[in-house]
Amino acid sequence: MVAAADAHNYAQKLGISSGLVVQELGWDEDTDDELRAAIEEGSGSEMLDDDTDEVVDVVLLWWRDGDGDLVDELMDAIGPLADDGFVWVLCPKTGEQGHVDPSEIAESATPAGLTSTTPVSLGGWTGIKLTQPKTPSKQR
Fold first, then answer.
1. φ, ψ for residue 91 (rounded to 5)?
2. What is the maximum span of the chain, computed from C-alpha positions, in angstroms?
3. Strand partners, 134
4. 9-31: per-residue pLDDT in tens?
5. Do 39 and 14 contact (CB within 8 A), yes or no?
């Protein structure tokens, strides 16, 4: 269980603010409903599922060991992503069933054209933010 204040802080930790469009992928019975609620509260709307045609600001990807090919999933995830959008890969924390090492996520991010950041703790889950490279404003 996540305390309400912690849940609010989770949305802030994830960079979720009012008006952002968030897509959720990889939902299953083990996902953290309070974390999900905090994200929806932070964005001010429900998360979209994988069937959306909308451009999204954030993709929230719940990922566990054994879920498949993360590179393929990331390639699919960035399709609807806005130019300045980002992906959060959430995996069970160290020691929990389904845990994925952050280095594996970082390795999978590179072929998808993404860069990983330092993991953050989100209760029973660890979040790794993946960002798209900034496009230079001028070519030299």
1. -130, 155
2. 52
3. none
4. 899 999 999 999 999 999 999 99
5. yes
